[in-house]
Please model this.
Amino acid sequence: MSLLAVKGLGIGFGGIRAVDNVTFSTEPGKIFSIIGPNGAGKTTLFNLISGVYRTESGSVTILDEEVTRLSPEALAARGMARTFQNLQVFFRMSALDNVMVGAHVHEAPRGLSHLLGLPSTARENRQTRDEAMALLTRLRLADVAERTAGNLSYGQLKRLEIARALASRPKILLLDEPAAGCNPTETAEIDEIIVEVARSGVGILLVEHDMKLVMGVSDRVLVLTQGRVLIEGTPAEVANSPAVIEAYLGTGLPSLEATHA
Amino acid sequence: MLAQFLQFTMSGLTVGAVYAVVGLGFTIIYNASGVLNFAQGEFVMIGGMVTVFAVAAGVPLPLAILLAIAVAAIVGIGLHRLAIEPARDASPVVLIIITIGGALVLRGIAQLVFDKQLHKLPGFSGDTPVNFLGASILPQALWVLGGTAIMVALVSLFFAKTMIGKAVLATAANRLAAQLVGVNTSVILAISFALSAAIGAIAGILVTPITFTHYEVGTMLALKGFAALVLGGLGNPMGAILGGLLLGLCEQLSAGYISSTYKDAFAFIVMIGVLLVRPSGLLGSKLAERV
Amino acid sequence: MTPRSILKLAALALMAGTTLGAAKAQDIKIGAVLSVTGPASFLGDPEEKTLKMYVEEINAKGGIKGRKIQLITYDDGGDANKARTFATRLVEEDKVVAMVGGTTTGTTMSMGPVFEDAQLPFISLAGAVVIVEPQKKWVFKTPHTDRMACEKIFEDMKKRNLTKIGMISGTDGFGKSMRDECVKVNARFGIEILAEETYGPRDTDMTPQLTNLKGKSGMQAVINPGFGQGPAIVTRNFRQLGLTVPLYQSHGVASKQFIDLAGDAANGVRLPAAALLVADKLPASDPQKPVAQAYAKKFQDATKQPVSTFGGHAYDGLMILVGAIERGGADPKVIRDEIEKTKGFMGTAGIFNMTATDHMGLDLSAFKMLEIKNGDWALAE
Amino acid sequence: MRGLIGNRWAELGAMALLIGLVGLILPSGYYFRVGALVLVSAIAALGLNLLLGYAGQVSLGHAGFVGIGAYAVALLPTYWGVPTLLALAGGAVFSGLLALALGRPILRLKGHFLAVATLGLGILVAMVLTNEARITGGPDGMPVPRLELFGTRIRAPETWYWITGGVLLVATFFAQNLLNSSTGRALRALHDSEVAARAAGIDVARIKGIVFAVSAIYASVSGSLLALLNGHITPDVASFLNSIELVTMVVLGGMGSLLGSLIGAAVLVILPQALTIFHEYEHLLLGSFIILIMIFLRDGIVPTLRKRFTERGS
Model:
């Protein structure tokens, strides 16, 4: 039984198959990376899996439970969490509040007792806050916990998104370019965090342009071009595949080692 | 039966044409600057009132009309310079509140400069109704419909063919990029306010012989024009026109066939219904969230 | 901002609002809350102008027994909630001895309790019967009631043998209230209402409603309770659709402005209104003639606007009040009693005879049935 | 977190102090009435602020709920002998349920589309109140039976000032509770990024429904108090212009600031009273003030001033 299984997934926009017949599966504690040139459909694939777009064909299962076309919030309740390529941080809230929002699925939906400020709410707030602080500490954001997210640096925001995703205690974590725009030190930090999270048993699905990062941490790598799977295998297998080299050169990219901002 | 239907329809189209033009005015400013200008109805008022008072002062009608359009355009530029431009980076809802303040100011000035009475203009081609398949139609209604059509055509041409029109579109698409290619975006925004004001004024002049004018007519028109704009799809000029005509038709057909007491209610129910089926309006493009 | 500075600001703002309260002690303060702007502005505007004009005149002539009148006016914009605040302000801050105002029935009804509580006389300028029925100790009114207007119209219809009619009314306070009164009294005159339509106060085209009325067979006349732009548009649409049955308007259009707006379409329209509109056409023997003529001339000279009965009601209210003060002095209780004793006062609306049970004091004879002929008022009787 | 708690009591304390001190210096019934009107409007503005300022959802129809609350305390006691306080609660519950029922479909709309849908909603309420004259008295309105507490009829503006002040403080307390809970975090989150909020497991439709209902209840309570304070009510309370006025109060005082709602209400209620000395220049000046405040205090009065003070402080 795989953690996340994707079978024949596809969607089209105006006649173009943005994602076409993609199949793969991931295991707990493993890092599964998806790479490919710009416009290959990586983010679209993420949006399909996480329920932001509605799948046209194929299926997604989590631990053999059919979750195709479920809403993002329903998927979150089933243990999926994700980050976004273009920073979807709650900019007007403090860093701590951002992470506390991440714990939403574990909080009781009791609007009335929230309004009345019953002791249960205070207890819940305390627990969520403690957990969120622990995560902020883990991601070296403890000293900016009370700051408004809008005032944080880019690298901090990238880590904040990961902290928020982790706050839901996910079984499977989707990371969309977590190191994009980060300097080498920050990239190394994120690298370390990903490995650490995976080691705690979370299955990780990673989209990343930084080849050094991908090749260094991944258990398996899937190459996507024009919405289709080109090859799937271990980092070594993929790096040595002539098809991959050709695909990348074909799109005018200088080399596999290229990093993108 | 047909005569009755035609009568209701003509009534709806005439009423709707004003909503449509107000909606079009909204769209021009919205597209260029992202501001929803709730003082749009006041331009209609200025058009009507200035013409009425100029004619009363002995100015010939054609000259009075030109004067009214010019006054409205200047007021439009003034509104932009004095109220919108200083708050350029404010959030959309703050800008809306500013335009509501602007509407209050314009109404306040109108009540001082003019008066608080109702006024009318004579029909441009007399007030004798013409018979069309049993429905009786005022010649001025044809002026309103024709005028609206011509304005829509001219506005489309302006955007498609003239340098200034293209510059407005460029500014709307990307202000920074437009500046980089040498467009003076501040001037462009002023132009779009002036254009929008002029269009509103023309509408005000055309309908005054039918609907009369008054220093407070703007409030209701802004409300209906905004509804028309959203019904048609925000940002699409043709959508605003379609939305306005539909809203007018809805009101007058409900008044004729269902209940005159609740006609506005039916119009709003239809509108909410349309929005639930098409959340971006009739001609609005579907906005996908980029993540 | 500290709470303290907010407090200061608020106190300052409040104080700024009361500086006008500073007046000489011997002045007689009269309040007026009117709908000078908003949907009823064409009533409130001439009312305010009339009050100011006449207070000025009275003061120029030395005031009331040597005491000047200080008129304090507020604009409620037609909003009942604002009206009540201003009423409280007149009572508590400005310390007026009486009030002439209340342009609409809604604002009047909302202000009434303030003056009842404060025990100050309040002469309303609004039309509906509910203002004086049930009677309130401190509240009076000067315009004819809408029920009287209905009665006058139905009386005229009966004379002309028009028994099956259609009604189209505005959904504003005036139109709605008069419509309700008409529906109560029509049976008494043997008149049957075949069909009813309505329109909103800001509507600009009533052809659908009138097309439906036109389609009713056997309709002999149409009555249009309403004020503002609505009746003028109804009248024009009425002619546009080629309706030929008699059209009756209400006293809500008793202003030359209606004829100006409706143009040729107004010819043939009948309406009940005060003699003020036809001052010049009254026979010389009519005792109302000099009063009506004088008011009409003064108003038109001062404002350059056509005279309306609305301003006339304000004149009547002010003069009744002034008369009461002249007779008994400026004590509110005495003023109230004196207003109630008003007898044979010749106003623009007719002869007022107030009693302990009648706080309006006009009878049906004060109403004239007018017909518009060649763009001018004419007596129909 | 201590910051938030500190802010919380500071905000509530500032409000209580303001209400209390102003109440002590007000010289007459008229001032108390104006004060009570400020507080009543602030209750509705506070609710709208939860929706508009925190959750970022526009409503141009909130006066409709004010109207429902106002007519609940007028109609229920008049026709069915319902005790006034029960009628007030009834109006609030009805408003809340109506908001929940209508909120589901309508709140799927975004931005200006939501604005128009709520606008229609408000207009529908106003229209029913105007046209069903047989029970509502139509445009001329109807009298509201006075509130009786412990055998005495409450009518003095002073008493109303303290009652509405108390209600406002309770309303603020509840609003703070809500904001400081997972529901509150969720509604602020969906303002910034709906897609991220959903990915975090937030049922956006449900949260929007809750905050819409809460804000409707606030508006309804405010309407009930207004009706009881006035003793006579007309459909004007539900008018489009009053909806706009509520939005203006929120934006002027500061979106996302509860204290701002009180300040915004104070400005829009007191300013017209102060401007009466300028007679016909009143509207011109009111409009100019609104424009100037928005240009110079762009984030609203309270947030902008708070920012300036803290910047100078640090």
Q: What stands out?
A: The domain at 28-144+291-363 of chain C is CATH 3.40.50.2300 (Rossmann fold). DSSP finds twelve helices and 14 strands in chain C. Chain C has two domains: 28-144+291-363, 147-273.
